[in-house]
Amino acid sequence: MLMNLLSGEGQPVSRAPLQPLDWTPILLGPQHLDSCLALDGASLGGLWSEAQWRQELEAPERPCVGMMRGATVLALACGWLVLDELHITALAVGPSWRRRGLGLLILQALLHQGHASGARRATLEVATTNTAACALYRAAGFEEAGIRRGYYRNGDDALIQWKKLTDQEFG
């Protein structure tokens, strides 16, 4: 396993070296609202409003994990736990921090958190035109399960992707 996840108020259970950066992902909460909004604006074009971010960061069934430098969230991944599934709703890496492995690390941290919370599968939608994200999800073991035509505001199609979360991988 690449890392150990944390519990509670953002305190790591343990630190394991992360390559190439030595950071441990934390659970994000309401105290990270401003930094999440800033990262959302810089990386996702303002996907969610302040009210939506507040809801994401306060609801226990909506885990959000982040990689921090000081008080700044550099990368985040959020999801919704629905029965035994984790629906990944957002993944962002700050523009100046891309291509350093943070996307895969933060995605794995969210998958680990989802598995620890009882999820046995994970799903997401990704724009067919987002080749970097598609490659990231392939590297994490996601498989294409279908397509949603015209899913995004700009008319782009979305690939529906799934991954089994196994005890072997996350136990």
Share of helix, binned: 25-40%
Tally of DSSP helical segments: 5
Low-pLDDT parts are 1-21
Strand order of the largest sheet: 3-4-5-6-7-9-8
User: How many separate structural domains?
Assistant: 1
How far from one another are the termini? 9 Å
Q: Kindly provide the radius of gyration, computed on alpha-carbon positions and rounded to a whole number of angstroms.
A: 15 Å
The fold-level CATH name is: Aminopeptidase
Globular, elongated, flat, extended or rod-shaped: what is the shape?
globular
* Largest sheet features: 7 strands, mixed
Please describe what this structure looks like.
Helices cover 29% and strands 30% of the residues. The chain has helices at residues 33-44, 50-58, 102-116, 131-139, 167-170; strands at residues 6-7, 11-12, 26-27, 64-69, 72-82, 85-93, 121-127, 143-148, 158-164. A seven-stranded mixed beta sheet has the order 3-4-5-6-7-9-8. Strands 1-2 form a two-stranded antiparallel sheet. Residues 1-21 have low confidence and may be disordered.
